[in-house]
Structure formats: C-alpha cells, structure tokens
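Entry 12.
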Amino acid sequence: MNRTIIYKKMQKTKTNHKKFKKEKKWHLEN
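Predicted 3D structure (tokens):
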C-alpha cells in the first residue's frame, strides 16, 4: 500500500473522530 494513501486515510479518520465528538457534545446539550 502507498504511504500517502495510508496518511490520507489516517487524516480522514481523525477528522471524522472530531466531527463525531462534536455531534456527541451537541446531542448531550440538546
């Protein structure tokens, strides 16, 4: 597998995780 592809995938999962955390917070507040 290509190193850049792995890196991009990791970045994607990181941003998804952040989004998920934000949504969780939002659900708790509402």
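Annotation: Residues 3-29 form the longest helix (27 residues). The radius of gyration is 13 Å.
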